[in-house]
Write a structure and sequence with these properties.
It is built from seven helices and five strands; from the N terminus they run ααααβββαβαβα. It has 157 residues and is α+β, with helices and mostly antiparallel strands. It has a five-stranded antiparallel sheet with strand order 4-3-2-1-5, sandwiched between helices. The chain is elongated, with a radius of gyration of 21 Å.
């Protein structure tokens, strides 16, 4: 398995897609129920293969990621060959970016000496999707890129 197995909840959300996946292998509902009972290891393999297919699709289409912690915001732009990052650090220990008022504080203080901004870029050391998966595993979430683009636009002007 290349990534990780989807959760029970994710499988439930993707039950139609999973049924189609099984159908491509000529496995209908009755056959699937039989496999789960008689060959649980085969059922496990099918779940893993399907999970990897879903992850591969999600990661291939991922363009922006965000990771918020109490005093840091990590914004990532995942391009084809490299990943660019904007890291915002609040030097005021009272600030909590995990709270709604944390972003308002950032807006009010972005260009003061209470915020450090670091820009970076790095070529992928391994395959792109694996690098993105690792960031997600560490707590990043997929994003529409709005915050990255907004902050980048402000910094560049």
């Amino acid at each position: 398995m290349k990534y990780k197995r989807l959760t029970k909840e994710q499988f439930e959300e993707l039950h139609t897609e999973f049924a189609s996946f099984l159908a491509t292998q000529a496995i209908d509902k009755a056959e699937w129920d039989k496999i789960k009972i008689e060959k649980p290891e085969v059922a496990e393999q099918e779940l893993d293969v399907f999970s990897d297919l879903i992850w591969e699709g999600v990661l291939t289409n991922a363009t922006y990621l965000e990771h918020f912690s109490k005093n840091h915001i990590f914004l990532f732009h995942c391009q084809e060959k490299l990943i660019q990052s904007i890291v915002l650090k609040a030097l005021d220990s009272e600030v909590d970016f995990m709270q709604k008022d944390g972003l308002q504080w950032l807006s009010d203080n972005l260009f003061t000496d209470t915020v450090e901004i670091h820009l970076g870029k790095k070529e992928y050391q391994e395959d792109r999707n694996k690098a993105i998966f690792d960031l997600i595993t560490e707590g990043a979430i997929l994003s529409d890129g709005q915050l990255y683009l907004q902050i980048n636009g402000i910094i560049q002007s």
